Amino acid sequence: MGIVKFVVPKGSIEEATFKIIEQAWQGTVSGRGRIYRVKISDPDIDVKILRPQEIPTYVQEKFYDVGITGKDWIKETDADIKVLLDLEYGKVKQVIAIPESFEFNSLDDMIAYFAENNKILRFSTEYLKSASKYIKSKQSYKKHFGELEPTIITPWFRIGNNKNVEIFLSFGATEAKPPEDVEAIFDITETGTTLIQNNLKIIDQVMESTAVFIANKDSLKDPIKKEKIYDMIVLLKGVVEARKKLHIFVNVNKENLDELLKILPSLKGPTVSNLSKDGWYGVNTIINKQDYIRLIPNIRKIAQGLVTLEPSQILSLDNIIIDDDKID
Known about the structure:
Layout: E1 4-9, H1 14-25, E2 37-38, E3 45-50, H2 55-60, E4 66-70, H3 71-77, E5 82-86, E6 92-99, H4 107-116, E7 121-125, H5 128-137, H6 139-145, E8 150-153, E9 158-159, E10 162-169, E11 184-189, H7 193-197, E12 200-209, E13 211-215, H8 223-242, E14 245-253, H9 254-263, E15 271-274, E16 280-288, H10 289-302, E17 304-309, E18 320-322, E19 325-327
Parallel strand pairs: 1-3, 1-4, 7-10, 7-11, 8-10
Antiparallel strand pairs: 2-3, 4-13, 5-13, 6-11, 6-12, 8-9, 14-16, 14-17, 15-16, 18-19
Helix pairs in contact: 1-8, 4-6, 9-10
């Protein structure tokens, strides 16, 4: 039995999650695609795959010490967990979308129209709690319905006391529901392409979500688990940071060395070494990807032999601080 129980998401971000794990632990994930229990190169970590919707609650309840899920599901479940690291992949927008033929430009406008005309406004979503809270936050909802709760409808229960606003649980293909079944959807989108293909348009953006690394708060109080979890943060953060960087190697003659060093950003300081040819140096450093195109015109005028590599991992071995808790 491993020291730390780690739960990772199945579904749309599954492949991206396995990729970051393989980069972080410098090894393959074995068993993937066949079973819900996979192995990584660290024997002290037990890994299981579950739906991202379940992960915040299961980590909260300490079925697992740590996990990866989306910010959207943390908000939906209102789980009492600790977010340790934004992994910066799986970026999606949570939106309200309606048929293109509808003339409303915002959810506020739509709520007001349906309320004033005594029509039932129906939504479809997987995010029942988030949708209800967001709909209630609109000024037109407060004006017409006060503190009434939208009616949430699932196969198992019906709750809420506002019969004029209904939220139906979706089991998938949410974008297919309008206009016959509902008037609007509360859903996530990456590019908006699927919505457009289904003749839908976005009228409100609720939030942006990415994959995050989370932990059970009690697990962080256990000295042994905490040490292992902090090691996991270092490895995962190393991949997140490496994806923003480039490792460049440049050959430059002595006359241009100082000029080159002035224009090169780096994590700490460029490494300069003598080449076998007298009067020439090799310079290597880590730069931000966003600086690369800007630097090229200047580098090519004063240097030769530029080689560019994408690092798989950059580990910061400085102290990690989470809130006021520091570990060496």
